[in-house]
Description:
Blueprint: E1 7-11, H1 16-28, E2 33-36, H2 44-49, E3 58-61, E4 64-67, H3 69-79, H4 92-118, H5 122-146, H6 158-164, H7 167-177, H8 188-199, H9 211-224
Amino acid sequence: MAGEGxxxxxxxxxxxxxxxxxxxxxxxxxxxxxxxxxMGNKSELLLRSNxxxxxxxxxxxxxxxxxxxxxxxxxVDEVWDAAGPSILPTVPYQRATARFWAAYTDGKLFPAYFxxxxxxxxxxxxxxxxxxxxxxxxxxxxxxxxxxPFFAGDRVGYLDIVVGCHLFWLEAFSGMFGVALxxxxxTPLFAAWAxxxxxxxxxxxxxxxxxxxxxxxxxxxxxxxxxxGTAAK
Length: 233
């Protein structure tokens, strides 16, 4: 493990974005203190560290906060550049392409599958599932262009963890709503990639919660506020 001084990560148990930040830290072998935030009762440290959005994750390095998961990953990769292989591609074109797909994932993937949970009717949910499949189809096309086991090539890299941090949510939503979000019959390359990613060391270091944690999260959320969200199966 790299010796780096004061490193703290503010996260939340089921936040895929906090999982992404933790994956980056683990890939670089960085020692850090993880603080699990109660997002219903945010700490003064979180509010002070991220006064704009008041969200996790926040990486605090020597007392200075870095906010937003993609920015955190790049920060970790640059600050601890000598601690292990680069997370981002080193070739400028490949790095720019990876950043494009990371922004696409941030802007499209999470809203697509979260829309399934917010759907008020079965018809609306079916439409959201179709939108989700289209998003995954685009990612599959990006994966196919590389013709490698992972988005980054022969090993897990930047785009792999950016997409992979969402897989436990996709598994949870598939069970909650009886839909196949990672469907080998529709997106076989992406499904095969998801299986490989799940078996990789970066996804098995104890930073990725089980899908059951997401289910528990929504059950508690509905207990606390019955009017919020739709019922899970």
